[in-house]
Each structure stands twice: as C-alpha cells, then as structure tokens.
Design a protein that fits this description.
Blueprint: E1 17-20, E2 22-23, E3 42-43, H1 46-59, E4 65-69, H2 78-91, E5 97-101, H3 104-109, H4 112-120, E6 123-131, H5 135-140, H6 147-159, E7 163-170, H7 178-192, E8 196-201, H8 209-215, H9 224-237, E9 243-246, E10 257-260, H10 264-276
Parallel strand pairs: 1-4, 4-5, 5-6, 6-7, 7-8, 8-9
Antiparallel strand pairs: 2-3, 9-10
Helix pairs in contact: 1-2, 6-7, 7-9, 9-10
C-alpha cells in the first residue's frame, strides 16, 4: 500500500482503508485550500491500484470500509471507477461501504444510471464541500460550483442511492459578510437535507491566495466571538430533518454533535454557554486542519 503526497480523509473515515485512485484535485484553485498546491492532478495508474488492493487484502482482509482519495476522485471515468469498486468487493468480502470526495460537477456530469450503478457496486457516501451558500463568496474564493449546482448534485446523489455528507466553512465570508454567509449556507443545506452535515472553521494557511489577501488587509477573519455568532446563526437558520450535524473537526473552537432540527435548541444553548465560558472552547494550539 503506497501513498504519494499529502493524503487527507474525512474524520468519519478514520478507520477506513485509504486507497489513492487519483493524485491531487482536478480543480485545485480554491483560494483558501493548501492541500494539493504543487500537485499536478492525474489518475493513478490502474496497475498500481490493483497492486495496492491485492496487498491490502492480505494485510487487512477484514476491511469493512474504504475511502477513495484524493481530492475529488469521483471525476474518474465511470467505467474505471466501476472496475475499482468491483476489485474492492472481490478483495474484501465483508466490505460495507466505499466513500469518496466529489464536487458538484463530478456528480452532475454523470447520468443517473451511472450513479445508480456505482451505488449498487458499493459507493455508499459522497463528501462534498459546499463551503458557502453565498455565490458571491464562492466566486471570490474560486470554488468550482454555484450553490444551486451543489444543491442539485446532493439531491441527485441521494436520489441515486448514495448518502451525502456536506461541509460548510465558518469564517469564509470574512467579518463583514459573516451572518449573510451563515444564513445563505443554512438555506442551501436545508434544500439539500443531507444525511450528514459538518461545519469546519477556516484556517488561514501561508502560501494560499486567501492568506495573502489577509496579509494585505483585504480579508478580515471573524474573531472567536464572531465565529460563534456565525455558527449560532447557521444552526438557528437550518431547517433539516434527521440530519447528523457535527463540528468535531480540529479546526473548530466548539465541538458539537446532534440531529437537526431535533437538537437545535440544545445546540444553541451550548453555544450560548460558550459565550460566557471561554474555557469550553478548544485552545488555539490544539486547532489544526
């Protein structure tokens, strides 16, 4: 099992076998993301993928979950992805689910028939970064998809038998547009009604265009209180049914978990307590990407 470059995965895939099927991100232009800078996107040779699956089947034969890396591996041609899924099913008899990162365009470009075939072969969950429901923010940070395209993609994936896990990024709109970002993001995810929803917090990383904007004084990050207010506005504005919501990522100041909208009031009460009790918040040195 071999890996090239920085390999990331969602927190919920911590116990999964990570299989690189692509290198980098096919878009790789978001101004806030440092992950694949310097990595030229390409498909990993199929021969290497087969060798890694074979090795993994001997080393970790009881694998139940697999995550396909890198950044948006769903952009792979459908026939190639089907082959990977078949190989995984043969290698791991107890395989329960395969997960993958995707952007909206990856899903919207595939037909419903293609997506249903992938779901039948075990592709059980797609992870998508909405980041913001505000199209002005999305354009400013050079995201590939509009909020409407992301809503369409999530609804399409779920209709074809896949679960969807969606990410929003606190702080991305800056201080001035913070609450607008929260409300429009809540509006978008409410239309999606994903199975899982996570809020992460923007961390400005040296070398990214957004960090350089911040250095020049062109971007102002909300302070800790402002980020809590943004999170509170987002949760209070969400209209969801049966959606698992988490802020357990290391970038966040306040870890939360609940079902929206059932647990909305409880989560808001925790946030309100955190305004008064800063010791509830994760120390700066413990935050990370």
């Amino acid at each position: 099992m071999r890996y090239r470059g920085l390999v990331i995965r969602p927190p919920s895939e911590a116990e999964s076998y990570i299989l690189q099927v692509t290198y980098g991100c096919s878009h790789n232009a978001c101004t806030f993301c440092p992950t694949y800078k310097g990595t030229v996107f390409r498909l990993r040779p199929m021969e290497e993928i087969e060798e890694d699956i074979s090795a993994a089947s001997r080393i970790i034969p009881h694998t139940r979950r697999v995550f396909l890396a890198d950044g948006n591996a769903l952009c792979m041609p459908t026939e190639r992805l089907e082959l990977v899924l078949r190989l995984l099913r043969e290698a791991f008899p107890g395989l329960e689910r395969v997960g993958i990162y995707a952007n909206g365009r990856d899903i919207n470009r595939k037909s419903r028939e293609e997506l249903r075939r992938l779901a039948e072969l075990g592709l059980g969950i797609v992870y998508l970064g909405l980041e913001s429901g505000d199209d002005l923010v999305l354009r400013r940070v050079r995201k590939l998809d509009t909020s409407e395209e992301m809503v369409e993609a999530v609804l399409k994936a779920r209709d074809c038998g896949m679960k969807a896990s969606v990410i929003v990024l606190l702080g991305l709109a800056g201080k001035e547009d913070s609450l607008r970002h929260a409300r429009l993001s809540a509006e978008a995810v409410s239309r999606m009604n994903p199975d899982y929803l996570s809020a992460l917090t923007l961390m400005l990383v040296p070398g990214t265009p957004l960090y350089e904007e911040w250095e020049r004084g062109e971007f102002e990050m909300p302070d800790q209180k402002g980020l809590l207010e943004e999170l509170r506005e987002f949760i209070s504005s969400c209209r969801l049914e049966g959606c698992v919501f988490r802020t357990n990522h290391a970038s966040n100041y306040l870890p939360l978990k609940g079902i929206l909208s059932k647990d909305r009031d409880r989560l808001l009460q925790v946030i309100d307590r955190a305004f008064q009790r800063p010791e509830m918040l994760r120390p700066e040195f413990m935050r990370g990407l």
